[in-house]
Every structure is written in structure tokens, then in C-alpha cells.
Amino acid sequence: MTHDQSSKPRLIGFIGLGVMGEPICRNLASKSGAAVVALDKDAAPLQRLAAQGVKAAASAKEIAASVDVLFLSLPSGEVVDEVCRGADGILANGRRGLMLVDLSTTSVDVTRRLAADFAQQGMTFIDAPVARTRAAAEAGTLSVMVGATPEQFEQVRPLIATFASDIALCGAVGCGQVVKILNNMVLFEVVAALSEAKAIGERSGVAVRTLFDVLSKGSADSFALRNHGMKAIVPDEFPLRAFSVDYARKDLRYALKLAGECGVDAEGAQHVDALFQSAIDAGDKDRYWPVISRLFQKGSKA
Question: How much is the pLDDT for 232?
Fold first, then answer.
């Protein structure tokens, strides 16, 4: 297919239909006005998305050779790199003019190397990691941080707007990942502080629900308090098939790597990394990551 830069893409590809990818793909298919072809190892989301007219692809090679814009929503930067660089992957098989949009959280160095290598092949690779919850993905109200040129940003912004209510151009390629990684680092550190406050407050005679409710009305209020605190820590509910400790630690490791490269001693992030390791050692690797609050229940911590 020849891509007409003056018009909307006629065919969109999507690889990775997990917790976030499936609802993002659904919004793209229902709102973009373009045909969508998708790929995932699991047949179930493809079957569900068929109701929106999404067609299943046989391989990444097939998608890369045919679509105008290709979104990636994958578990890690390592998987992104593999899908792009494999013999049957996107870099070897994508057609000139293809634009790739990486919605995954990928390390900055991997992102920038991929962008350079795709550019040599006449393709564009930009980063657009997403923030907020699966419910926000379903509602089309994600926050997306983009690393791209202003021209590339304007080209892809209407598509991102089908699943996001806040879209920010953060700088050149890789800068979206910088902001996303630091967003998560700050979130993790705030939830660690909330976990400490819960343990101290309860042992001092204040119910955690009361504590968090009052904190939400003062200067300690935050998105983390109202969501991770009140919806997970207060009821002590940390389900599976959510953003797990394992995934959270992967994101935090990207932040620690970036800090090391910049010469910053990120002690708060190092503390949370130790908490994540303790939660993994306690058997909670696959639970929703605010489960770290349980580490403080018996006075234990990293």
C-alpha cells in the first residue's frame, strides 16, 4: 500500500493485545476511520476485537510490509527490540515510509538505537508510552508522552487522541520514555511513603481509611493516594492480571539505569527497588504492585 502523507492512514497495524493493548486497539479501530490489523500470541483478544472489524495478522513480517502506521504495546523494551530486530521482524521487513509508534515502556537507549536504525531503512520510530490505568485505556483517557519531532508528533497525534485525553510532546525521540520512566519512579516512591504512613498510622490508633481520607483533603493529596492508596492499599486488594510487581520493577530498573547514566544517586528509587525485591521474595511477583504495603504490616521492610 502506498501511504499518502496528506491523508489519514488507511491501514493501521497493532502488535501486543495485553492488558492495555487490547482496549487501545479497540479505540483505534472504532474511532480512527482506518482499517486495523493486529497480532498477538493469544487468540482471545483477537476474537474479541473482531467485533470492531480488527483483522488478525499471521506475523509481524506481514504487518510491517503492509500498514501505514504500526503501534507496539509490548511487555518490555527487550520484547520491543526482539520484535523489531528478529529475522522475521519489522526492521528487516517493513516498507519505506512506515511509522512505528512504541506505546510500551522501553529503555531510552534501546529506543534511540531503534530510531536510528529504522531511519537508515527509510522508516520512522517514535516513542509514545502510556500512563494511567486499564479503565482509562478502555475509556480513551490515557496520558501519552511522546518523543518525536514536531512534524512527526502532528502526524500521529490524531490517532493517539482516539485513546488518550492528555498527549504531550516531551522532546526528541526517547524523551517520551524519559518522562514515562520518571513518572513511574515518582509514583512508586509516593506509594512506598503511603505504605509507611499506613503502618505508622494504624499502630498509632488511626484507621487507614480515615488517615487516607483526611490526607486527601490536605497537602498530601495525590493521584497515588486516591487511586493506589484508597482502591488497593485500604481494602488490601492486589489482584493478579494487573500491573504486577514484576512489571513495576522492570520500569524502575529503567529509571535506575537512567539515573546511573546521568550521575544521579537515586536513593528513593533504590529503596523502592529493594521493596519490590522483598515482595517478589514473599511470593507476590504477579500481584498488583502496591502489594508492597504488606511488607510493613509486621514491621518488616526491605
Answer: 97
